[in-house]
């Protein structure tokens, strides 16, 4: 199938075409800036907590993720999604998602470091990638709509 026909079919898909609008592309760029900033802070905190303070991997991961919670929430609300919705409702929904993300991140970290013996910072990169994959859609469609 020629590339132009594939692109036409993709653009006709309602869900995909919604993400190809100029405002959505701009929003995705802002989300990526926020995400890379959050990841840098989180990885730095994880390193400090694990290698300098000698905490366990899961404990260090949980603390780092919890600290980044507020930075990430505020950056996504005001910068990435420019939301003016009810902040109390958003914090509650974000908090629920945070608990799920924390559990998923800790589980991924545990499985990769304990079972597969992956270096913990590399495991954290995988955990961040997994969490980011579902967060954008939930932020856009549910939390910051």
Describe the structure.
- The radius of gyration is 17 Å and the shape is globular.
- The mean pLDDT is 90.
- The protein has helices at 3-12, 14-18, 22-52, 57-80, 87-115, 120-143.
- Helix 3 (22-52) runs antiparallel to helix 4 and helix 4 (57-80) packs antiparallel against helix 5.
- The protein has one domain.
- The relative contact order is 0.11.
- The protein has six helices and no strands.
- The chain is mainly α.
- The longest helix has 31 residues, at 22-52.
Helix-strand topology string = HHHHHH
Number of strands: 0
SS-derived structural category: mainly alpha
Globally, the shape reads: globular
Strand content: under 5%
- Average pLDDT value? 90
Poorly predicted runs of 5 or more residues: none
**Count of domains:** 1
**Helicity level:** over 70%
Main sheet, how many strands, which sense, barrel? none
The Rg value, from CA coordinates, equals 17 Å
Number of helices: 6
N- to C-terminal separation?
37 Å
